[in-house]
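Structure ticket #2291
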Amino acid sequence: MQKESAYWLAWSKIPGVGPILLKRVWQQFNSLETAWNASATELGQVEGIGAKLLNTIKQKRSQINPSNLLQQHLQKNPQFWTPNHDNYPRLLLEIPSPPPLLYYQGQVDLLENHGQTPLVGIVGTRYPTEHGRRWTRKIAIALVKHGFTVVSGMAAGIDGVAHQACLEAGGRTIAVLGTGVDMVYPRHHKQLHQRLQKEGLILSEYAAGTPGDRRHFPARNRIIAGLSRAVLVMEAPEKSGALITARYANEFCRDVYTLPNSPDVVQARGCLKLIHHGAEMIVTEDELLEMLGAIPQLDQPQQLSLFEVEKKESLPQLEPDLLKIFQAISNEVTPFDIIVEKAGLPTAQVSGGLLQLELQGLITQLPGMRYQKT
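Resolution: structure written out below.
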């Protein structure tokens, strides 16, 4: 596994190969070591790799020794996961742009990584009102007392309030940074950073020593949305970065909830726009918990008896294209985009086919546009 991680690190050093393209390479070859040794013709079959990028890849591969690179990297970055790792967060694997390297510091809870403990994102403005602060504290405490883990970005304002409230209530919270995990940003969160190391978890896609950069924070927001089963926007003006997180949540088929307030309050205007576009309103803690409680746990991989395997492998009588769609769903939960890719059919046809299969009782749809055979 460490050998494969060396190739994730090596690929991440190639200019022009970002998280989205790297996921495509991984899906094409099933191994980044295999992809590293692939010919230009084979690599050129990956969508997004053209002649110019092929030349860059060829040049960089001749300069990088993945094994040596990993050993050097581990000296300053001993703790990180790559998507091939068993403990890489499962929900992040669903998104189109999972971080090739996810650095961590603090206390790891594998139930969170494997999707058995539900994670909920709380985000908002750096300049909240007292109303926003009070409700963020109330909601964060209610969530952790009911077994949820709260994810936020350790920014000033709503993020900091959410993390502090979780820790004070004795609950779990995860901070996703736009810096290296060892960097404190903003500086007044030094004590919070120290406490998160002891009682929570800090994550980042940036290596140790990476300082704050405003370009990093929008990218960081996709990780918050990707990790979370639902995202709560507590307060956000019309141009708040929290709205970027909400947009990612919508793209990733996560539920979005938001706290209403008067249009006269600048910090509420972004929230009101979210409500206008379909976000659920947070009215009471109990009502929110009831709605969140409807989100099922991710299924655990199961050991099947020979009889059960034979039963699952007994295919129903379906027309050819519908059978392709059915066979594209593995015995575990399968995201929609993977089904489309495996079936090799147009997206609209796959969507319609999944509905037919669901009506026939052959599959079930789970939150986040994920499907499972029944």
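Closing remark: The first helix runs from residue 2 to 12.
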